[in-house]
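Q: Here's a chain of 126 amino acids. Please give me its 3D structure as tokens.
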Amino acid sequence: MKPVPMVMPELPNQPNSLVKFFDRLPQGVIDTLTTEQIEAIQQAFEEPGWRRSPVDIRLTVPFFGRKYYFTFVGGAEKRSGQRRAEERRQYPLRTAANIFFFIGLATLFYGAAIVGLVLQSAIVEF
């Protein structure tokens, strides 16, 4: 099918990322897109059919003048085995930063447990 020169239509109900995508395209490229290609691009930018996870906690913690973010997401596993294997290779669990994070988390947990035991024994003896 021969490309039909056109001016991009207004995209009032489309995701902001789609609008930004078309804003970055040169007008010469937009002019070469067919209606079917534009529709395919719009479908690719549509929101996925999945819903948010039941557990979705995102927080930022200031630490020595810098801010760090933490994200805890949980729910039923819906990724394919191939995608999980690819992500395990791309984001390995055994990294120095992860090890130090878990050591710090364990230290906080055991420190809080010790403080709790000390307070409990002080209250019981009183």
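Q: Can you summarize the key feature?
A: The chain has five helices and two strands.
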